[in-house]
Amino acid sequence: MPKRTDIETILVIGSGPIVIGQAAEFDYAGTQACLSLKEEGYRVILVNSNPATIMTDTEIADKVYIEPISLEFVSRIIRKERPDAILPTLGGQTGLNMAIELDNSGILDELGIEVLGTKLDAINKAEDRELFRTLMNELDVPVPESDIIHNLEEAKAFVAQVGYPVIVRPAFTLGGTGGGICHDDKELEEIVASGLKYSPVRQCLLEKSIAGFKEIEFEVMRDSADNAIVVCSMENFDPVGIHTGDSIVVAPVQTLSDREVQMLRNVSLNIIRALGIEGGCNVQLALDPDSFNFYAIEVNPRVSRSSALASKATGYPIAKLASKIAVGLTLDEMMNPVTGQTYACFEPTIDYIVAKIPRWPFDKFESAKRNLGTQMKATGEVMSMGRTFEEAILKAVRSLETGLYHLNLKNGEDLSMEWIEKRIRRAGDERLFFIGEALRRGVTVEEIHDWSKIDFFFLNKLEKIVAYESTLKENQFDRSIARKAKRMGFADRTIAALWGTNEREVYEWRTEQGLVPVYKMVDTCAGEFESETPYFYGTYEEENESLKSGKESVIVLGSGPIRIGQGVEFDYATVHSVWAIQEAGYEAIIINNNPETVSTDFSISDKLYFEPLTIEDVMAIIDLEQPKGVIVQFGGQTAINLADALEARGVKILGTTLEDLDRAENRDKFEQTLRELGIPQPLGKTAVSAPEAAEIAHNIGYPVLVRPSYVLGGRAMEIVYNEAELLHYMENAVQASPEHPVLIDRYLTGKEIEVDAICDGENVLIPGIMEHVERAGVHSGDSIAVYPPQSLTDKQIATLADYTERLARGLNIVGLMNIQYVIADGEVYVIEVNPRSSRTVPFLSKITGIPMANIATKAILGETITDQGYPTGLLDQVSGVYVKVPVFSFAKLARVDITLGPEMKSTGEVMGKDDTFEKALYKGFIASGMEIRNHGTVLFTVSDKDKAEAAAIAARFAGIGYQLLATEGTAETFREAGLPVRTVGKIGGEGKTLIDVIQTGEAQFIINTLTKGKQPERDGFRIRRESVENGIPCMTSMDTAKAVLRVIESMTFSAEAMLPREAMPAREVHA
Amino acid sequence: MTKKRYLILEDGTVFEGEAFGAERGMVGEVVFTTSMSGYQESLTNPSNTGVILVMTYPLIGNYGVNRDDSESVDLHLGALAVREIEEQPSNFRCDETLSSFMEKRSIPGISEIDTRKLTRIIRSKGTMKGMLTEAGADVDVDTALQVLAASEMAQSLVEAVSTKRPYPSPGRGKRVAVVDYGMKHGILRELNNRGCDVLVVPHDTSAEDVLAWHPDGILLSNGPGNPEDIEEAPGFIREVLGKVPVFGINLGHELLAISCGAKTFKMRFGHHGGNHPVKDLSTGRTEITSQNHQYAVDRESLEGTGLTVTHVALNDGTVEGLAHETHAAFSVQFDPEASPGPEDANHLFDRFITLMERHNGKEIIANA
């Protein structure tokens, strides 16, 4: 069927900020959607609140709205743009929920707007548990015994029928938020309560647990002519019971005979036909390992994380084709973009094995519960391809960048067997590695199967890997043994450790022996048709298909999996760098391993290598491609960390030199540079012992910022206010020694400023300056950033520009740099310089219209900023106010403290833009998911040092009619200040405690600041967690609280009574 | 300890791998299949008689071999070439490993070779002969190439695989005679599932004998080799056409075409796999089919044969289905019985049943 001609304008709804359960895959899907609709000649309007995406670049759609995805704002855009149709199935759960909300509001009917792709009633049938179950019954597809419950009594009645364990799945939530498996009454009460809270319709599905079944997924597509295909089948390494987003997944299915595959394929296609899906869809099934019995678990009637994975695993661009299906095209009339000569209506077949491993944030959140269950906790994932399972899984392991290169843990030998067994029985992020440790100790696969229910197929493979370690050890530098090991995916590093040598030596020996990887093409058809897709993976085979072109090439290193501190922003910069390289006339080659991103879409670069970002894997590609050089500035810390080893092997790092990178990152060298440039930084010194630390702190004055020198990215960083706290930190948090000094810096309470700049070695371009709402001490990624600065003097701005230019030239920056400043007592100090692309690059690029990554890349390739036609120095401010508000995923991560501090905790960000600071902030807060009401109650519980400041804030809340609640001490201060306040009991106190207040939803905001010490700290922690679990905004910084207050004040008309006559000020009478 | 084994292609390419299955060497035509599952079905498919089958999916043997999924009792496959053979299969129905299954049936295999390279050679140069060396034997490329050049592919493949005498597979529904040119069990299963009373007859049974059994319909099965080699088929088909409904599958489809005067040709490397889109011209819908054919019907030659094209391969336009304009006869080039592969086209058996029902009706009227 040809495409629709009765529609012209289409509104695409994006997925908003990156949160756990909804990450970069929707930037990939959304970008594909917009571009493919434009390709068909439609006018595309995009709304998405996330500035860090390629999708929100103005080139991607005809009109881009970076506005909150809320009924209020999307309705306004619809009224203004009058689209003929909306496409909601490519913006994740957020997009779907928005479409349903719009439909319910009546605006779609009112304006005659059609929903493209899968219809809303089909979406409802797939998402609403009861409707889904009814449909499955009609289709004769078994579903696990289950019941929809609306309260705990109903839950208990169900358990009485089917027994434990049962799974709780809240309706309409992302990544299973609030759900889990219950083994007893206590867990049932807890999880049902949280599930009901998180379900927007206060509804949960209780399901008889079928934990232990094989979890199988089919990515399917259907068009309006009822052509339906399976794009990819996937099998979870972890049996049913762990959210598929948290499972290790392989493609295609490995342990199913064709009969089982066809049985489940038929079921999947029957389901999407019955639902009337028009586009992509994900079907999850559970298969009994001992019979043909199966159950349908879930259907996602939209493009999802799994479809991004399936697209990258097969090369088949699901989102792109789903968008075209939405406008009426059918699969049998569209070409398969990979082969270019066959049709899209076919089922990809692959000739390699794909492994996906999730990336969890537990390295950042050490206190978090590491158990995995039905609620997703991973922030991102890596994918790898190999010609054996062993190769695929080991490549995925080293793609994770967790410091592990093999199936072993760092301190593996020291672990007790009990501990290992426990960590295998109870699934957690490191289970794969604990299995490796167990096998190494001779635990049988039968035992491990008993503990984990993981299929023997996978366990046997892991055992083969572990067994081969001894073979390697006994046969050092034996070519055929080494070849076999490489074919099993062993890293040079692992082999080196077994041979008692170093990685470099193994690499050189191997290269001499001609034991180098070849690169195979991902072509959707297992070689059956000729393809020209420049999409490759490395493996140890005979024939290499990746031929070096005649053109000079530049390699860009990607940023790997999405994790806290390294999000989609770096993918944004990577993609722009690739485009700039192409514009400059070179062949752009990208290496990355994240299946969710735009950068790993094979149509972006001239060549895509889907490979781990380790020195070994990167060098192998460099050896083949012989590029002009490698760009490391855009791939975050992942790429920067490789610079050293690459240069040591003679690879040219393009842009800022390694020596200068080091000058910015090495503390002593950096200090020296600053001294030479005459730029002040907060006083600081390094200490190697506790007494020395105390002395330094005494000399520079409290509070001080302490952190170990050997840890990057803000981990274990703390602000301490007195000697007792310092000594506690020195004793507990770090072990200072001459090898591991501790850095002690004066903590300046001041405004934090962030500047991004581009330098070509000579000229410096500063697109803008951002001011943080939260004072210094909160990680820049967790702060609200504002452009332009709201409270700086012209002189301060001039100083910032001057320092930035001097730093850029002084550090010989060629490319991008990011600087954090603090302004205390009117003085500007430098805190940190990052000689690379930063989190704020997309935000600033979008606001100022300066394509920063593009200009920086061209500067790196030798074209000066002025030659590129751009001005230099600090640019004039653009009109309007723009705020970047961080978004957190605390609800998904039990036991994580939400207090903002020097360690970054946010997973994503949104942008708010408007004429005034307050309006922009309002949008930012709304887009971040906060509800802002113009009346209500605010609960205070703050530490002593913050009480005075809190009183001032409380007074303003009271002034606009908010009720005040506070705990004893805080209430006392408020009363003294003459404020009307109700006291609530502390945790464990008599009568109504603050926990009751939080749980009953009595307060709309909570303002809580960290109290040092023992018991109170734990209370504070409880309060903060309770607020998260009950979905109530909790501000842990006075500055955030003030910002919220400012917004509420601006939306509220004043409510002041007329002054009584006697209270009027005396006035002169005019004659 | 595994033994070395070589695969030498006609073009001189040598693959060094490891031996599994039987130890003997052999010569055969190298064909690749892109199905990711269903190796047991492919291995036991009589259409693959004498063939060196290359599995493009690298992990083969994952779920072992079971007693349910074979498509024939005797194995006629030439050899199997894989990237990796799994010796520790995992599946609840697994009875033995693939390599022991092959060993017992004297089928040699080669593993640890770059099957993608092999596939790409066949894709670009077309199907060619290959020689598998005896396990552990050294390779002598010159001799191997001489042997390859001298070896003729067997012509009487059908005779070798067809049943020697008729056998029934009873049911209470339509009486269907299946002419066994190398029938997959899947065909029998689909007919029996629909209640058919089936009589499987040898490839050279006379039309008279078959018609004497009073079948409601005749199914021409799949089978190995060049359809033009099966001299007894066209005459048989011409005799039964118009008397009872005829359904041709795969080789049976090619034979129906030939018997009506059309020509077949050998494809470059054929269609082998479970992901082939076929457009049903009557409904406009595209179905994903299981295919395993090296020959196809020449579209040009159909003129004047009374046959109309009903199905085409979406990707290369190959004739995938035919129907007779005046007689109750139709055929498909692909395998609607699947096993292995997608079952989308399974409904064609229903169509055959319907055709038999209608035809019966007509005859009753005619007799009245």
What does this protein structure show overall?
The complex is a heterodimer of chains A (1071) and B (368). Chain A is an alpha/beta fold and 1071 residues long. Helix content of chain A is 37%, strand content 19%. In chain A, the strands form seven sheets. In chain A, strands 28, 29, 30, 31, 32, 33, 34 and 35 form an eight-stranded mixed β-sheet that branches. In chain A, strands 14-13-10-11-12-15-16 form a seven-stranded antiparallel β-sheet, sandwiched between helices. A seven-stranded mixed β-sheet of chain A has the order 17-18-21-20-19-22-23, with helices on both faces. In chain A, strand 22, helix 22 (636-648) and strand 23 (653-654) form a beta-alpha-beta unit. In chain A, helix 23 packs across helix 24 (667-677), helix 25 runs antiparallel to helix 26 and helix 31 (947-959) packs parallel to helix 35 (1038-1051). The radius of gyration of chain A is 29 Å and the shape is globular. Chain A starts with 8 loop residues before the first strand and ends in a 20-residue tail after the last helix. Chain B is α/β, with parallel strands linked by helices and 368 residues long. Chain B folds into two domains: 4-150, 3-Layer(bba) Sandwich (Glucose Oxidase, domain 1); 157-367, Class I glutamine amidotransferase (GATase) domain (Rossmann fold, 3-Layer(aba) Sandwich). Chain B is 25% helix and 30% strand. Chain B has helices spanning 39-43, 98-104, 115-125, 141-150, 157-161, 185-193, 207-212, 232-240, 251-259, 347-367, and strands at residues 4-9, 14-21, 26-33, 51-55, 59-60, 79-81, 84-85, 108-111, 128-132, 167-169, 175-180, 197-202, 217-220, 246-249, 264-280, 286-297, 307-313, 319-324, 329-332. In chain B, the strands form three sheets. Chain B has a ten-stranded mixed β-sheet with strand order 10-12-11-13-14-19-18-17-15-16, sandwiched between helices. Chain B has a seven-stranded mixed barrel with strand order 1-2-8-6-4-3-9. In chain B, helix 8 (232-240) packs across helix 9. The termini of chain B are far apart. Mean pLDDT of chain B is 95; it is low at 363-368. At the A-B interface, helix 9 and helix 16 of A face helix 3 and strand 15 of B.
